[in-house]
Amino acid sequence: MAQESSGVGAVWGDIRAFGTGFKTTFKRLLKKPLTVQYPEQRMPMARRFRGLHKLLRYPDGQEKCIGCSLCAAACPAKAIRVVAAENTETERYSPGERYAKIYEINMIRCIFCGYCEEACPTGAIVLGQQYEIADYHRDDFIYTKERLLVPFAGKPADDRPHYRQGWTDQEKPAEPQTTGAL
Q1: What confidence tens digit (pLDDT) does each residue in 6-44 have?
Q2: Residue 106 contacts by C-beta under 8 Å, 6 or more apart in sequence?
Q3: For residue 67, with 0-12 CB atoms within 10 Å meaning exposed, 13-18 middle and 19 or more buried, which class applies?
Q4: Whole-angstrom Cα distance, residue 65 to residue 121?
Q5: Distance CA 142, CA 23 (A)
Q6: What is the pLDDT of residues 65-95, one digit of tens each?
Q7: Which residues, 6+ apart, have CB-to-CB distance to 142 below 8 Å?
Q8: pTM for the whole thing?
Q9: What is the set of domains in the chain, with CATH numbers?
């Protein structure tokens, strides 16, 4: 005999489905909401989150980027353009022989994979915690060297060598702050 599509069994199935839905709803009503008032409050990002790029400087103010173009070669999306130039005695931008005269990242093409960060021999390019990249014009998504460079905080406190390993106090990523919203 064919199964009935209407009848008592179908009604009980519908009632059970409504009951399951109401049970889920009432369980969520008793918990604290996960809503965050976004511009004022921000959700903490994971420590290894890959956000917007930053070009770092040495503590003495020189750029870490030496214009080697390894980041551009490692980029699978071909979003990075580097044009190198020679340092001179009068104009010295980086400690090496060369520096990046033009450094551009097309943020529309970038897939935030982090290969550029891994390929950089000097640790000049890092992916930070910032994730807001909205804009109105396509041309504004091409980030130039001036936009990517971390501002120089001033004269270094001591004569530390600019080739030391690790983060400086200004470059160290902020620890994520936890909120009670979770």
Answers
A1: 677 788 889 999 999 999 898 888 888 778 888 888 888
A2: 79, 80, 81, 141, 142, 143
A3: buried
A4: 9
A5: 50
A6: 999 999 999 999 999 999 999 999 898 999 8
A7: 104, 105, 106, 107
A8: 0.66
A9: 53-148 (3.30.70.3270)
Token reading at 166: 């690790």
Q: Return the structure tokens found at 55.
A: 């070009």
User: What is the C-alpha to C-alpha distance for residues 63 and 149, in angstroms, rounded to an integer?
Assistant: 8
| Token pair belonging to 116 | 């550029």
102-134 burial, b at 16+ Cβ within 10 Å, e below that, comes to ebbbbbeebebeebbbebbebebbbbbbeeeee
Residues listed for the chain: 182
- 98-157: per-residue pLDDT in tens? 999 999 999 999 999 999 999 999 999 999 998 888 899 999 999 999 999 998 876 544
